[in-house]
Write a structure and sequence with these properties.
Blueprint lengths: L6 E5 L7 H10 L3 E5 L5 H18 L4 E5 L16 E3 L4 E5 L9 E3 L5 H4 L5 E4 L4 E8 L3 E8 L1 E3 L5 E2 L12 H12 L4 E4 L5 H13 L6 E5 L2 H5 L1 H7 L2 E5 H7 L5 H15 L2 E5 L14 H13 L3 E4 L1 H4 L4 H15 L20 H16 L3 E5 L4 H8 L5 E6 L2 H7 L5 E5 L6 H15 L7 E6 L9 E7 L8 E6 L1
Parallel strand pairs: 1-2, 1-16, 2-3, 3-12, 5-6, 12-13, 13-14, 14-15, 15-16, 17-18, 17-20, 18-19
Antiparallel strand pairs: 4-10, 5-9, 7-8, 7-11, 8-9, 20-21, 21-22
């Protein structure tokens, strides 16, 4: 049943708004959808979520919905006739806070503070670094620049000011409204853009709580300040995203692989979800096949330890969204056949965390190794124990058995976890039989097969925190209890 451990997150957009396309992406292997709040309206995004959930319901596959807040992104404004313009090296080009329609000599910006934040000699990057400008001078409303590297400039492109700390909050008023809307939509994850510190994460998590949601917060690492404060961000957030686009512009392109490896490594060590994003299969926006370099990039992100890989323009606006998902799934599956032991359990011997949950997960992973079982089945209501077991990267597949549809969707993005919906019972024996039936019906286990069963403290379900050996089709009373906590 479990063919792939690393998961796939696809951005929805004009190319993937139809339910039939989302169904095809689910069949191709997508595990979650990203709702990008940088573009479109809440009404459009509400429809996107509705279509995605309808597709998941029809196909019977779990699907996580991640709402990605826009953040304080500085952008250019519109152009005359909505036509792109060409900037050439050494020409003068003005960025103004006035509300104008731009042309090849000037463009407006949505950030009124820009003339006050830059000085002569500062670098200004447009469109993810495709265009480089150098500031010549600035006044109350204009920033006069000289083009260092020219290119074609479209509308509403990003403006980056590397090395400049901007006096603007990570959560804009738009973000606050979108966060409340995301809570109303029962988003499974909420991503915070342009995080700079742990305090940014703490503020967002408090707002999520106030909005009546328990959605995990994913902190996007895309600024130099975030790299500098990585430890506190990891401690404060529930997950991380390696947002390589802005990260490469805000730092430098040659540092992106260095930052990527460090972010993934530290997120893995902390047991936090980590998503690697941006230009994974960029050429598939316009081509049915990726480049060899892109295939290698996807494989390396898997080997680095990513829980999840994200597609952006490839599925939002690309010509081959379903093919992009299918291609990524094949590359991941092939990369995971590399004969390398992933489990970190043996490295934890002698390291005492003092946490019952980790002791339970280690016991389950050790037992599965010793008994050479294929799967570890985890009874969980919130999904917490399945996430913590995933952090150990066991060689066995993890089947999360839960009665919570929210947990099912949230676990869809977690490495190595296949979530299955199961019925509940206050009787331990009956619960085990219900779980066994679910495993058999899903093709996750075979009659006569020995598996490891793990349970957290399930209130009212008759199971304490325990690890057991269990034979599918056997008598529940004959299961061998290896560890019991509490």
């Amino acid at each position: 049943m479990i063919l792939r451990r690393a998961k796939i997150l696809a951005t929805l957009g004009p190319a993937t708004r139809e339910k039939a396309v989302i169904e095809a992406m689910l069949a191709a292997g997508v595990d979650g959808v990203r709702i990008n709040m940088s573009h479109g309206t809440q009404d459009e995004k509400t429809n996107d979520i509705r279509q995605a959930r309808a597709a998941a319901e029809k196909t019977g596959r779990p699907l996580a919905v991640l709402v990605d807040l826009a953040g304080p992104k500085i952008r250019t404004r519109t152009l005359k006739g909505h036509r792109p313009v060409t900037l050439v090296a050494n020409q003068l080009f003005t960025i103004t806070t006035r509300d104008i329609e731009g042309d090849s000599s000037q463009v407006g910006t949505n950030y009124a503070g820009m003339p006050h934040d830059v000085k002569a000699g500062a670098r200004v990057l447009l469109d993810d670094g495709a265009i480089e400008l150098r500031v010549e001078s600035a006044n109350e409303t204009e920033v006069i620049t000289r083009v260092i590297n020219g290119s074609i400039l479209g509308e509403r492109k990003g403006i980056n000011l590397p090395g400049i700390t901007l006096p603007i909050p990570s959560l804009t008023e738009k973000d606050r409204g979108d966060l409340k809307w995301a809570a109303q939509q029962k988003a499974d994850y909420i991503a915070l853009s342009f995080v700079r510190s742990g305090a940014d994460c703490a503020e967002a998590k408090e707002l999520i709580k106030q909005a009546g949601s328990a959605a995990p917060l994913v902190a996007k690492i895309e600024k130099a300040e975030a790299v500098d404060h990585l430890d506190e961000i990891i401690a404060a957030a529930d997950g991380l995203m390696v947002a390589r686009g802005d990260l490469g512009v805000e730092t430098s392109v040659e540092l992106v692989p260095v930052h990527q490896k460090r972010i993934i490594e530290e997120a893995n060590a902390a047991g936090k979800l980590v998503i690697t994003a941006t230009q994974m299969l960029q050429s598939m926006v316009a081509s049915p096949r990726p480049t060899r370099a892109e295939a290698t990039d996807v494989a390396n992100a898997v080997w680095d330890g990513s829980d999840c890989l994200m597609l952006s323009g490839e599925t939002a606006t690309g010509q081959y969204p379903v093919a992009a998902v299918a291609t990524m799934a094949r590359i991941i599956e092939t990369a995971e056949t590399r004969n390398e032991k992933r489990s970190i359990v043996s490295k934890l011997v002698g390291q005492q965390s003092g946490r019952v949950s980790r002791a339970l997960c280690e016991a389950a992973a050790f037992a599965a190794d010793e008994m050479n079982t294929r799967i570890i089945a985890v009874f969980t209501e919130s999904g917490l124990m399945a996430r913590r077991l995933s952090a150990l990267r066991p060689d066995q597949g993890i089947i999360a058995l839960t009665s919570s549809r929210e947990a099912i969707n949230e676990l869809a993005l977690i490495w190595g976890v296949a979530p299955l919906l199961t019925a509940t019972s206050p009787s331990t024996e009956e619960l085990l039989k219900l779980g066994e039936k679910t495993l058999l019906n899903a093709g996750a286990a075979n009659r006569g097969e020995m598996i490891v069963i793990m349970a957290g403290r399930l209130s009212g379900l008759g199971l304490s925190s325990s690890v057991s050996l269990y034979q599918i089709g056997g008598d529940a009373s004959d299961s061998i209890h290896l560890s019991t906590f509490g």
